[in-house]
């Protein structure tokens, strides 16, 4: 820290109690000055030689026969006045970054100008500020912070503006020219940790990070911090990413509980203003701040009860970053007044804004063909797939809440149902979790939630779990079995549709037999039955027989052997086909509409990216394990 010593005589100021200060000298004092609660017993000379204001005050007291002078409004109070008084006595005074602003403002109050005496206090302080303080990074920040206590004096004397310029200029300098100390507690580069043996003086200079300045600025009050960031932005030499990192560091330092999305303080008005200011300072560039930081800022704004305008702005910004969000980011706790655990309405708004933005982008893209050269159309689709996968994982987490209404679950899932993706394992896992935690829902509600899933897009692991899942309606199990058989036939090199046995063929819709790529069948609204263990076993037996026969065909096994294998099917299974036929006739009662779009029954949303081990289950299963998805 820079400092300057003034005067050469020893300090002769003495204290008597807490309210009296006097100069120990052979000559008796002849002037009393009241500064706040402190009385100063001083000599008219040499004070009158250096302070024009005191000269005028003494002249007034002589005319009115008053023995004391009151100067209660001097900036800096008794401490600052004492510094000025010692300078008049030529006693030793030390100025530094912490007291120089107070001394400068007090000297201006006392009118200690060069016109009164050459080399007066104001001149000496200005030299110290210009030659030392404003050239030091940390001293400039300290002085800037102290100016707040001396407004409007510090503003009128241009101390604030000089500090702002000094700090902003140093923050904007090229990193190779940074040769002063600074605070930086971020993760160091490998060479900074000593792992790079080839580090030399040149590369060391290049190791100064572009955001080296952000932590030191966190010491500033929010008003001064705002002015510094605005000044830095005006210079235009700092990247938006560095500005965003500075705002993130400030929020983590100055907002207690920010990392947890809550506020742990007793001054909500202060924190509300701070959140509003940080939001206002956010750079306009998309990648300047992370989605996680924006979501925490939104959570904090809700906790601080910030205005709706500011919340809407944060939601808009988050919607532009939704592809970078994680499930953990979106698990926002609901207010204490709510019965549900997580605030699913906020996530619904974010996803809705994201989808609207995507649609507007597609419209703009189609209107301007040049856009395709800059941003291919698949980039937008990729973002939608990422968001849909995150929402699948989010739904699986919030589904554990026993108080979560079905309507909220479905409304959020339907927002991404139009997104085309290869797997629906994620939404199946979410559906299964909801069915497990909400066993009391009605049959129609069970069917409604299952419409979110497309059975054709389940992985082998998910199919294995689904066909043994007693929580699923009958129609879902049958669809899983049928489409799994189609997939097995296609992967083994067979035709698009397996050669079904006569009992099974009579139970399936004509459209499904003709084309495996047709839309999922529309099921009769009354078919909400659940398979019994025996019925499920019989159905799986028939499909297992078909699979064995198809494999035999592809491996050129003797056709006579195949007929023999087919004939060995247990008579009980054949008889069970009669019972199955009744169930299938319900399931496929709308077979004339097989080729129509069935988006009301299934969705096209992508699978969750959550991966985990697959567990083998019996007919009575628990929740679906995390599925391995490639």
UniProtKB/TrEMBL annotation:
<comment type="similarity">
    <text>Belongs to the NPH3 family.</text>
</comment>
<keyword id="KW-0833">Ubl conjugation pathway</keyword>
<feature type="domain" description="NPH3">
    <location>
        <begin position="211"/>
        <end position="487"/>
    </location>
</feature>
<feature type="domain" description="BTB">
    <location>
        <begin position="29"/>
        <end position="97"/>
    </location>
</feature>
<dbReference type="Pfam" id="PF03000">
    <property type="entry name" value="NPH3"/>
</dbReference>
<protein>
    <submittedName>
        <fullName>BTB/POZ domain-containing protein NPY4-like</fullName>
    </submittedName>
</protein>
<dbReference type="InterPro" id="IPR043454">
    <property type="entry name" value="NPH3/RPT2-like"/>
</dbReference>
<feature type="compositionally biased region" description="Polar residues">
    <location>
        <begin position="611"/>
        <end position="630"/>
    </location>
</feature>
<dbReference type="InterPro" id="IPR027356">
    <property type="entry name" value="NPH3_dom"/>
</dbReference>
<dbReference type="Pfam" id="PF00651">
    <property type="entry name" value="BTB"/>
</dbReference>
<dbReference type="InterPro" id="IPR011333">
    <property type="entry name" value="SKP1/BTB/POZ_sf"/>
</dbReference>
<comment type="pathway">
    <text>Protein modification; protein ubiquitination.</text>
</comment>
<feature type="compositionally biased region" description="Low complexity">
    <location>
        <begin position="596"/>
        <end position="610"/>
    </location>
</feature>
<dbReference type="InterPro" id="IPR000210">
    <property type="entry name" value="BTB/POZ_dom"/>
</dbReference>
<feature type="region of interest" description="Disordered">
    <location>
        <begin position="585"/>
        <end position="630"/>
    </location>
</feature>
């Amino acid at each position: 820290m820079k400092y300057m010593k003034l005067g050469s005589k020893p300090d002769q100021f003495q204290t008597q109690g807490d309210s009296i200060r006097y100069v120990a000298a052979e000559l008796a004092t002849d002037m009393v000055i009241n500064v706040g609660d402190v009385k100063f017993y001083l000599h008219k000379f040499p004070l009158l030689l250096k302070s024009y204001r005191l000269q005028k005050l003494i002249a007034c007291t002589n005319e009115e026969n008053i023995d004391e002078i009151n100067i209660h409004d001097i900036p800096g109070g008794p401490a600052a006045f004492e510094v000025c008084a010692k300078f008049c006595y030529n006693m030793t005074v030390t100025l530094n970054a912490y007291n120089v602003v107070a001394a400068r403002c007090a000297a201006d109050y006392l009118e200690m100008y060069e016109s009164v005496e050459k080399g007066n206090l104001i001149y000496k302080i200005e030299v110290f500020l210009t030659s030392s303080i404003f050239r030091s990074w940390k001293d400039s920040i300290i002085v800037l912070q102290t100016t707040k206590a001396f407004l409007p004096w510090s503003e009128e004397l241009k101390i604030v503006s000089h500090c702002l310029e000094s700090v902003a200029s140093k923050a904007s300098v090229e990193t190779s020219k940074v040769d002063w100390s600074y605070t930086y507690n971020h993760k160091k580069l490998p060479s900074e940790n000593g792992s790079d043996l080839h580090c030399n003086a040149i590369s060391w200079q290049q190791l100064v990070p572009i955001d080296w300045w952000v932590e030191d600025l966190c010491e500033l009050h929010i008003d001064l911090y705002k002015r510094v960031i605005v000044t830095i932005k005006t210079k235009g030499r700092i990247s938006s990413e560095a500005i965003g990192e500075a705002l993130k560091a400030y929020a983590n330092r100055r907002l207690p509980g920010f990392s947890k999305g809550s506020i742990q303080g007793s001054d909500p008005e202060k924190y509300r203003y701070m959140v509003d200011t940080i939001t206002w300072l956010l750079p306009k560039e998309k990648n300047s701040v992370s989605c996680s930081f924006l979501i925490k800022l939104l959570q904090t704004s809700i906790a601080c009860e910030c205005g709706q305008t500011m919340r809407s702005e944060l939601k808009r910004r988050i919607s532009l970053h939704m592809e970078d969000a994680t499930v953990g980011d979106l698990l926002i706790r609901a207010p204490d007044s709510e019965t549900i655990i997580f605030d699913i309405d906020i996530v619904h708004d974010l996803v809705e804004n994201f989808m609207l933005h995507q649609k507007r982008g597609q419209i703009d893209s189609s209107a301007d063909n040049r856009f395709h050269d800059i941003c291919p159309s698949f980039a937008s689709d990729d973002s939608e797939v990422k968001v849909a996968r995150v929402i699948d994982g989010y739904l699986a987490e919030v589904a554990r809440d026993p108080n979560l209404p079905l309507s909220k679950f479905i409304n959020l899932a339907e927002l991404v149902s139009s997104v085309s993706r290869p797997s629906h394992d994620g939404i199946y896992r979410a559906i299964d979790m909801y069915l497990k935690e909400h066993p009391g829902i009605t049959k129609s509600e069970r069917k409604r939630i299952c419409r979110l899933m497309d059975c054709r897009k389940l992985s082998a692991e998910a199919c294995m779990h689904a066909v043994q899942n007693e929580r699923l309606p009958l129609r879902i199990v049958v669809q899983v079995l049928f489409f799994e058989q189609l997939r097995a036939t296609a992967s083994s090199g067979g035709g698009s549709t397996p050669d079904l046995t006569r009992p099974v063929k009579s139970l399936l819709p004509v459209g499904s037999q003709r084309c495996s790529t047709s839309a999922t069948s529309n099921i009769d609204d009354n078919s909400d039955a659940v398979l019994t263990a025996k019925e499920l076993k019989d159905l799986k037996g028939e499909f297992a027989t078909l699979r064995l026969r198809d494999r035999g065909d592809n491996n050129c096994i003797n056709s006579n052997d195949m007929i023999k294998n087919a004939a060995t099917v247990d008579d009980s299974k054949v008889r069970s086909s009669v019972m199955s036929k009744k169930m299938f006739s319900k399931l496929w009662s709308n077979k004339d509409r097989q080729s129509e779009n069935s988006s009301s029954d299934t969705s096209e949303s992508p699978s969750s990216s959550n991966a985990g081990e697959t567990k083998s289950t019996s007919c009575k299963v628990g929740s679906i394990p995390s599925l391995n998805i490639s």
